[in-house]
Amino acid sequence: MASTVSNQQGGGGQKFALSFARLSYKAQRRVIIIAFSIIPLAFLITFSYFPLYRMIYYSFFSWNGFSRNMQFIGLDNYVTIFTRPEYFGVFTVSLYYFVATFIQMGLALYFATILSFKVRGKNFFKGVLFFPFLLNGVAIGFIFMYFFRPDGTLDALLQVLGLGEFTQLWLGNPDIINVSLAATSVWRYMGFNFIIFLGTISSIPGDIYEAADIDGANRWHQFRYIIMPSIRRIIELNVILSISGAISVFEIPYIMTGGANGSRTFVIQTVETAFKFSKFGLASAMAVVLLLIVIIVTLIQNKLFGEKGA
Amino acid sequence: MRLNYTVMSVFKYFTLILGAFAALLPLIVVLFTSLKSRAEMARSTALSPPENWLNFANYRKAFVDGNMLVGFMNTVIILAISIVGAILIGTMIAYILSRFEFFGSKAIMGLFLLATLIPSVTTQVATFQIINDLGLFNTRAAAIVLFMGTDIISVYIFIQFISQISQQLDESAMLDGASYLTIFARIILPLLKPAIATVLIVKGVNIYNDFYIPFLYMPKTELQVVSTALFKFKGPYGTQWEIISAGIMIAILPTLIVFLSLQKYIYNGFTQGAVK
Known about the structure:
Membrane topology (chain A): Multi-pass membrane protein
Shape of chain B: globular
Oligomer: heterodimer
Strand content of chain B: under 5%
Mean pLDDT of chain A: 85
Order of helices and strands of chain B: HHHHHHHHHHHHHH
Largest sheet of chain A: 2 strands, antiparallel
Number of helices of chain B: 14
Mean pLDDT of chain B: 89
Organism (chain A): Xylanibacillus composti
Order of helices and strands of chain A: HHHEEHHHHHHHHHHHH
Family (chain A): Belongs to the binding-protein-dependent transport system permease family.
Number of strands of chain B: 0
Protein name (chain A): ABC transporter permease
Subcellular location (chain A): Cell membrane
Shape of chain A: globular
Low-confidence stretches of chain B: none
Strand content of chain A: under 5%
Helix content of chain A: over 70%
Structural class of chain A: mainly alpha
Number of helices of chain A: 15
Number of strands of chain A: 2
Largest interface: A-B, 101 and 102 residues
Distance between the termini of chain A: 30 Å
Distance between the termini of chain B: 43 Å
Low-confidence stretches of chain A: 1-12
């Protein structure tokens, strides 16, 4: 990969490279700084900062996204978000995903711990537990639509286990739809936490365990006093990130239910407000609210972990 | 003590098998379904295996009617251009930011780091207008510039990596009269191979799986990628799960092949990509 890139550099611009090399280092420095930063900076400004600025600007207007007619309405969009239940009510849906993150991390930690010791078929289990994370989001959405549909995988499994009376409309019942969707999310992302935990645990030098064995520590002690301290930071970090993660949930519920039956998340609401109902001003204000939450969460995270160093 | 150890061991394997079962069951059932005929669907349950393991009729129908070939072609084009672009852009800016101090270098570094905080899903409302104004709506370039330009994490990975490469290498090359361009191309880039592999894997998986950007910016049928091609199965095949399942398997197959052949690199890539 790297060699093809460097060949292109050497081959395509040979003439330029030769005359460039004749410049003094001071002149070279100036040329290379400008040449190497102009495109990345143009991208950064066009696709990160300019949208951010526009979004904040739009959020004070009533605007349908294409008309020339933009009406300044001050903070009205923000008032709408926090006073109309159909807008702020969707935050409760985030709670399901927030709780699910803890289950996800618990499972990931459990499997990472047992797979970091000697186990038969280690690579098989590692691969199988991680694989779902690599899958296409639309494919996962469809797989679980089939899993939860009437007479689908879950119902068939319950029948086989003699638990037939528990079958129900997993994606049709507003009381459990978010549990089903959050469970799908756990299935999808558990492997990611798992592989990170496994990586961190296996970076603990083996002789620490040996020393602990000599001191008569059992497996629980090893987990509690060797493994936990080394991954505590990652867990704490994930807990904090899960707050913004839970509010930004979009793909799984959008693909599986389109936000029906009370599964609408804040981001689905934002996207529909903009692209379905053409209320760009209001949608921008919602995006600003989401951004503020993410920034607050990050600031808390830096405050808590910043001083301890990376 | 010995009994206790056996109980623990049984419990350990029991949970591992349960975990593997939970991870695989939804996938295996979809594989079964994709090989069943319409009539067979009606008389079998979701868990029962197909009668004919070589019934690929659904795959043919899904691949042809679902225009999956177009999807794969667009995905490959977008994937290749945006990854090469992201790696070039990322290594270039990382090189000058970590090797030179110049007027505004701290500020630029700050701008890149700050941008990692902006979740791209939030700014989409405004980004849409920009893409539209640039005349890129409903072109492959929309996805390409967005995947290339908003990838600040890889800039971050490259900066971290370059600052670990000893400056003395640059200096000794300069004694030999190497230009900064030569240093970048012949010393820095080759040494960045592990970081490039990380970015390649993490970004490759993300772009292949991304649904939102192609869905929003390239609604035209000729421009559909694998994700959006699959998403379209939802309408016309509403209840024909044997066809949808075949579509799912077609979309998953490349991921499975890549995973099985590059397992080690993929694990490393995601571990390094996350512990930035």
